[in-house]
Design goal:
heterodimer, A: alpha/beta, Nucleotidyltransferase, domain 5, five-stranded mixed sheet, 28% helix, globular, B: alpha/beta, Rossmann fold, Alpha-Beta Plaits, two-stranded antiparallel ribbon, 11 strands, 32% helix, 28% strand, elongated
Chain lengths: 121, 282
């Protein structure tokens, strides 16, 4: 299964980024093979508005079935729902490897409503 | 007869006295028996009505066109999401529209190859018009929580009556709503205060407005012996149109929602001089 982790840098050894829409990097990880590929999110990081929506679009395009992150705003939540992407919630910053392990072990709760604030320009 | 001028009253910093200056320019013109129209473009918190106490005669809803996708026709090509500058459409399995982010530009409907996008108006606020005695009055009121002020500001400005001097009471700051207000004005009055914040934000406003090519003038409100604003204006070649002294009676009158012009006749001359200086520059 393919999962995206929001990360503060390019490898799974780096701490995850708690923000979804304006995460620095998306790491696409394959839970079966362990293969991980980093995708820069700079474009959305600096978007004037709609960062969460565009990030959801990116995650969908990467073919992920789930995303592991710390907070998701209302519009990003709506977009992820529409794409059928599950949100696994991490409650505190940790290395990507640990977040991925906990995700695989089913330790992360599924987010069933937005838990981030809406941001206006 | 030439069209009467439109004067925008703006500021970088909030709370410097834009509305005070705007409503008193209206009172001054009324006193001089000149036709005047006050247009409150500070649509997020219009407050000129507190002082002018107009009778509202008409109210009209203002909306922007937002896309509605016909799912039966949509071929999920994603062109609408791609063209949207404002990230208001996400291409997931089908396009997902976020109306609150839409600026109503219509690009999505234009690029849709199968005509699946229809535009429907989404109300963002109202424009109200009326009269305060002989002062013609218009104001916009943006719906609470609505982020997009410029379309409503433009709607307020369409209510302009060309035979009257128009006074555009601008929102503070330097962003799109200010630009929407100032666009088309013949002269811009920047109201500031003699504080480091007042000066800092005045400089930002000047930097924003100068490229628009409108003549600018500065009013220093609550003037005291801090001369930094005046020094800045001199260095920047900006006319200081008036220095309104710090006067407790003015604050008291304002707090009661009354016009200084009515209550403090000794202040009338200051506004008349201010108007004369604006008029000779338009």
């Amino acid at each position: 299964m393919k999962v995206v982790l929001t990360s503060s840098a390019k490898t799974l050894a780096d701490p995850i980024d708690m923000h979804f829409g304006r995460a620095k990097v998306f790491i696409l990880a394959d839970t079966e093979t362990g293969r991980a590929v980093a995708h820069d999110n700079a474009q959305n990081l600096h978007a004037a508005q709609g960062a969460g929506i565009q990030s959801a679009e990116t995650v969908a395009r990467l073919g992920a079935e789930a995303v592991v992150t710390g907070s998701v705003g209302p519009k990003a939540y709506k977009a992820l729902q529409a794409a059928g992407i599950r949100i696994a919630l991490i409650e505190a910053v940790c290395p990507g490897t640990e977040a991925l392990r906990r995700f695989k072990d089913g330790e992360l709760p599924v987010l069933d409503q937005p838990n981030g604030e809406s941001h206006w320009v | 007869m030439a069209r009467s001028p439109a004067i925008a009253i703006a500021s970088g910093k909030g709370g410097t006295g834009k509305t005070t200056v705007a409503v008193h320019l209206a009172a001054t013109l009324l006193f001089r028996k000149q036709a005047v129209q006050y247009l409150d473009c500070d649509v997020e918190e219009p407050n000129g009505h507190l002082f002018l106490k107009p009778t509202i005669e008409s109210s009209a809803s203002v909306g922007i066109p937002v896309p509605v996708v016909d799912a039966a026709r949509c071929i999920a090509c994603g062109k609408c999401a791609e063209v949207c500058e404002f990230n208001a459409i996400a291409m997931l399995k089908k396009p997902l529209v976020f109306p609150e982010l839409c600026h109503g530009c219509g690009a999505c409907a234009l690029v849709c190859p199968v005509g699946a996008i229809r535009e429907t108006p989404r109300a963002i606020g109202v424009v109200e018009t009326g009269r305060a005695g002989s002062i013609r009055f218009a104001q916009g009121r943006l719906n609470v929580g609505e982020p997009l002020a410029p379309p409503l500001i433009r709607a307020v400005k369409t209510r302009r009556e060309p035979a009257a001097v128009a006074l555009y009471d601008s929102p503070p700051g330097t962003s799109c709503p200010v630009v929407a207000t100032v666009r088309g004005a013949d002269f811009v009055v920047l109201v500031t205060e003699p504080t480091p914040f007042g000066l800092h934000d005045l400089a930002l406003a000047v930097a924003t407005l100068r490229p628009m090519g409108r003549p600018l003038g500065v009013v220093v409100n609550r003037a005291d012996d801090d001369r930094r604003v005046q020094d800045y204006c001199q260095a920047e070649n900006l006319p200081v149109l008036a220095e309104l002294p710090d006067d407790r009676r003015v604050a008291e009158t304002y707090a009661r929602g009354e016009l200084i012009f009515d209550r403090l006749p000794d202040w009338r001359g200051r506004f008349e001089t201010l108007w004369a200086r604006i008029e000779e520059r338009t």
